[in-house]
Design goal:
The chain is an alpha+beta fold. The protein has four helices and seven strands; from the N terminus they run αβααββββββα. The chain has a seven-stranded antiparallel sheet, covered by helices on one side. The protein is globular.
Amino acid sequence: MPCWHWPSAATEMIDRIALSSTGLRADQFVMQSRSYPSHFETTVSVAARAQAVFEYLDDHQRLSSHMMDSSAMMAGGKMHFSFDAGRGQTVGSVIQMSGRILGMTLAVEEAITERVPPWRKAWETCGTPRLMVVGHYRMGFEITDAAEGCRLRFFIDYGRPEWPWRPLGFVAGSWYARWCVRSMAEGAARKFSGRLGA
């Protein structure tokens, strides 16, 4: 199944009307209709300016480094990344992840759905994710100025995995979502610790 389907003329017109209310340009946002039953978010203070933080997080290979190393949290497995020409830095760009965990082959594709430097970015699964503890998801971050640096909010909206992994999703899904979001947010805070001038 292709990762991206552009809307019909009628749907595109409706999306343009909805988009105009957001104040975003068409190259900054793609309308999505999927809903998710679960949500988690966390906010941290970062000792750096918004532009520096956004540039750091805009690199998805760096952003998801916690998934690229074998660890107990990844059950000894790790994920590998591949990118299209946009490298996850343009709306519509596709990122592919694959790996083996507990002997199982996992794979997922993400597409960038929103990118407004230096304030926010979001991405969402497309196709059919082959994951064990979560199913489709939408992730992203928002940056706001603060007296000393900025505030960084990371979030994930997610559903359960497909069978036969759905029961595992009820047990471990929220645990994994919290770990993933916190790893990204806290990783950025550590990166700029003591570097307010960045």
